[in-house]
Design brief:
Oligomer: single chain
Strand content: 15-25%
Distance between the termini: 26 Å
Order of helices and strands: EEEEEHEHHHHHEEE
């Protein structure tokens, strides 16, 4: 396996405090818990042409940004245990951002489809608004899994278990969100979010190939496909910059 890129991710190791949050008299409409954390994953990349219409991605930049305006805490509920719960939401998002960096770095194609189309497809699976995506499943399970979720920090035993696992994955440069799925299994899902194994299998085949077909993309890192969206913390595809959309970037 090729080594992981050593480029840092701005915001990856940020530690939150209640001063980062906007105080609220009550939760926003549609929410029944005491705090919400909104994080944006921003990214951009460049690509260079290869022979015979091929291409290679280079100069990938990924950052994690906390939104003070969109993150909230109900006044009088600023407990340390709740802050730690929200910190783990942010850390899960940061792990997803790192996986995006790994997936896009040194990505190459043969010209059967464009670099932008290929990257957009991968990014959509990693930080898109699809509730069936891997990162979305992890965030949902963390809060609301029927057997193994924290129930928005109320299940203290599960909170300790998740804290241990997410901290370990976050601190491992090769750590992946899939490990939490393996740890908690399909039975941990709430009834409305049973894992779509076929879709997950399709995503893995897209990157790694299958017994019947080679991988669609060539990726230098053994990186997964993962996005996320959650009522309490929303990752969005923001500020994507490619060769074709930003005149400040040039092909090399």
């Amino acid at each position: 396996m090729a080594p992981k890129p050593k480029v840092g991710i701005p915001g990856f190791g940020r530690r939150l405090s209640w001063k980062d949050y906007t105080p609220a008299d009550q939760p926003p409409a549609g929410y029944s818990f005491d705090a919400g954390t909104h994080t944006d994953v921003r990214y951009r990349y460049q690509w260079r042409p290869l022979e015979k219409g091929g291409w290679k991605i280079k100069h990938v930049l990924v950052s994690v940004e906390f939104s003070h305006k969109k993150s909230w805490i109900v006044k009088g509920r600023q407990a340390e245990e709740l802050l730690r719960h929200e910190q783990l939401h942010y850390m899960i998002s940061s792990i997803g951002a790192r996986q995006l960096l790994h997936a896009l770095s040194d990505l190459s194609g043969d010209g059967s489809q464009s670099a932008d189309f290929t990257c957009n497809e991968i990014v959509a699976k990693m930080i898109g608004d699809d509730h069936d995506s891997l990162l979305s499943q992890v965030q949902d399970r963390y809060d609301e899994a029927f057997l193994t979720g924290t129930q928005h920090s109320q299940n203290k035993h599960q909170q300790i278990l998740w804290d241990h696992e997410i901290t370990k994955v976050h601190g491992d440069p090769n750590g992946k969100l899939e490990k939490t799925l393996l740890l908690y299994g399909a039975r941990g899902l709430r009834s409305s979010h049973w894992i779509n194994s076929r879709r997950l299998g399709d995503a893995k085949a897209l990157l790694y190939g299958s017994a019947s077909s080679p991988p669609k993309y060539h990726i230098a890192y053994d990186a997964p496909v993962t996005p996320r969206t959650h009522p309490g913390i929303a990752l969005k595809r923001l500020a994507r910059t490619s060769i074709g959309s930003d005149p400040s970037l040039t092909m090399v």
